[in-house]
Every structure is written in structure tokens, then in C-alpha cells.
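Input (structure):
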């Protein structure tokens, strides 16, 4: 994907997340959405984009569309393995899994939108000359 495609997918991810705020609780949940913007961008850059890039490199981009929401939903459990004795963290892990899984679904929707609009899956080779 191009750099513009990455920025476009992150923008779609943030817009989709802001649309989910009224369904998640409304009211002042926009504050929570504001604090979720940085982790959403981080997950997009460090987790979702490399998964899709590697899958596109091997020609199985459809597999990335299936795996991305599952990886997003399972990502908070890595922190549970790092700090297993944190009772407060484990009590809220289901909400973290829901939110990061929703980010994975939004990334997949933005990726399907990009595929529908026929953006190139791999960067242009002229960028590396």
C-alpha cells in the first residue's frame, strides 16, 4: 500500500471509531474516543499494516482480511501474559478485546474499501530507486 493509502485507512479507522462512540455509550464517550485515537493509529501502523503488507507480498491478501480482526481482538491477551497477577487489568480485558477487535474490523473494512477502489496493495517500485 502507498503512504497515502495508509493515511487514508487510518482516517477511515478513526472516522469509523467516532461513529461507534454513540453505540458504545454516547454522552462524553467522545473523550474516550479521543484517547483511543493514539492506540488506533499505533495498532494500525505496528500491527495491521504489516499483516496486510506481508499477506499482499505472498498474494493472500484475503487471509489478512480474516486474520486482522482476530489479531486485534486477541492482542490485549499478550499484556495479560506479561502481567498475570494484575486483577484489575484482567477484569477489564473483555472491554479491551472488544475495542481492539472493533479496530481490527474497521481496518478490514477500510482495506476492503481500498481494494474496491483498486488501490495498489504493494508500494510502487519507483519509490525505492
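Output (sequence):
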Amino acid at each position: 500500500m502507498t503512504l497515502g493509502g495508509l493515511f487514508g485507512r487510518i482516517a477511515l479507522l478513526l472516522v469509523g471509531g467516532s461513529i461507534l462512540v454513540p453505540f458504545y455509550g454516547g454522552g462524553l464517550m467522545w473523550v474516550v474516543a479521543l484517547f483511543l485515537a493514539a492506540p488506533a493509529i499505533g495498532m494500525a501502523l505496528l500491527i495491521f499494516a504489516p499483516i496486510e503488507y506481508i499477506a499482499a507480498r505472498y498474494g493472500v491478501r484475503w487471509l489478512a482480511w480474516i486474520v486482522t480482526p482476530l489479531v486485534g481482538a486477541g492482542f490485549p491477551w499478550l499484556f495479560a501474559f506479561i502481567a498475570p497477577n494484575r486483577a484489575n487489568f484482567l477484569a477489564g480485558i473483555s472491554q479491551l478485546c472488544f475495542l481492539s477487535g472493533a479496530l481490527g474490523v474497521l481496518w478490514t473494512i477500510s482495506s476492503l474499501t481500498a481494494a474496491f477502489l483498486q488501490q495498489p496493495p504493494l508500494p510502487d517500485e519507483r519509490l525505492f530507486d
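Notes: The radius of gyration is 16 Å. The chain has a mean pLDDT of 75.
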